[in-house]
Design goal:
Mean pLDDT: 96
CATH superfamily of the largest domain: Hexapeptide repeat proteins
Helix content: under 10%
Number of domains: 2
Largest sheet: 9 strands, mixed
Structural class: mainly beta
CATH architecture of the largest domain: 3 Solenoid
Low-confidence stretches: none
Order of helices and strands: EEEEEEEEEEEEEEEEEEEEEEEEEE
Number of helices: 0
Distance between the termini: 37 Å
Shape: globular
CATH topology of the largest domain: UDP N-Acetylglucosamine Acyltransferase, domain 1
Radius of gyration: 18 Å
Strand order of the largest sheet: 1-4-7-10-13-16-19-21-22
Number of strands: 26
Length: 199
Amino acid sequence: MGNPVRVVESADVDERARIGEGSTVWHLAQVREDAVIGAECIIGRGAYVGPGVVIGDRVKLQNHALVYEPAVLEDGVFVGPAAVLTNDVYPRSVDPDGKLKRGDDWHAQGVTLRQGCSVGARAVITPGVTVGRWALVAAGAVVHRDVPDFALVAGVPARRLKWVGRAGEPLTETAPGSWRCPRTGERYTETEGVLREDA
């Protein structure tokens, strides 16, 4: 038998949610119906996982992170404290007639976080955005367009400042278009604004 799921008493986990073995859901977190959480994940205190959200293995949602449906988080993703993954391009509480909007009155657009990427504390990712593999979104950034693989973005609106490797540290340029990770020694090549790992 594998590692058991741990859900603390004050957490609110819908019975239709699926949680992988070895995962922990901490105090006051809410996991909604039909959400899927992979193995060995940590859902921090006060975090929110919306209906039908899909989360891969070994993902960390820090305290008060908000992940609205239909977001997809691939394996190894990190979402920092109080970060928000939004889903409504044109948010309104009421329709043009002044009636309270309901679920059928709008179309949710989820955020996609690719393998190994990280989103810093209090960052906001707008609807429909994809953050690429191993990218790093700085704390407090507002991301309104897709982030390339291995990019470090920061600011409001977020802009690419540097390249980062799998270890999360900024890469060092060793020659035009050639990059190296100072921690692991891994090498990367940049071509037309796209960074790829060397074979």
